[in-house]
Amino acid sequence: MRTTIEIVNKTNPEKQSSDVSAALSERGRGRSRGLEFLKEYEEWLIPGVALWLCMAMYISMLRGVNVGGKKAEMAALAKMFEDIGATSVETYIQSGNVVFETEQGKRSIGAVIEKAFAAKFGFATTAIIRTGRDLRRIVDSMPFSGVDTDRLHVTFLSEPPASFQDAEMDRVKKGEEAFSTAGTEIYIYCPYGYGRTKLNNGFIERKLNVAATTRNWKTVNALLSMARG
Length: 229
Hints:
Blueprint: E1 3-7, H1 16-24, H2 31-40, E2 49-53, E3 56-62, H3 74-83, E4 87-92, E5 97-102, H4 106-121, E6 127-131, H5 132-140, E7 152-157, H6 166-172, E8 178-182, E9 185-189, H7 201-208, E10 212-216, H8 217-228
Antiparallel strand pairs: 1-2, 3-5, 3-6, 4-5, 7-9, 7-10, 8-9
């Protein structure tokens, strides 16, 4: 369910237009920003201009879904998200990618998803959450030039690692393979195929001691397009 408010500047009606423009810029920036706005403009909550607030769009990438016998049908997964209060739910391919809107914050929604998933499907997963803005930054910051993007992957980490272990990653990469670490993502170029690289999800989780899930470049861009609506 979306949350709506109506606002008019009682003290200075001529300033209403700029107030509304500023308010609209808050839309989609998450529950905490929306609540801050509500507190600031509390005395102006009278009939006037309707605003949508407090809803944010997220991308959930589930680790280890539909691999190794751990199956989750996408229609059932979408229904699970709706059952926990998410709206505008869309899934992408079979690897556990879900774009959705919610009033919950980025930090809390992952735990809610993980609990609901285990209850519905009978096995545990890690929900790695990003916003559309996160994916836009990831796409815009791609560090390699002149590479075949069909061989490009991004490993998404559940949290920043204590250390990226670049020396260990350098040690196991082969030939023209390349990687670049940035915050909670690792770009991995695998010219010989992801299935043949040692810079795989399992290696990264063991070395960095964080949960991770990997998506190819096509999927990253598709999820970004979906998050834009």
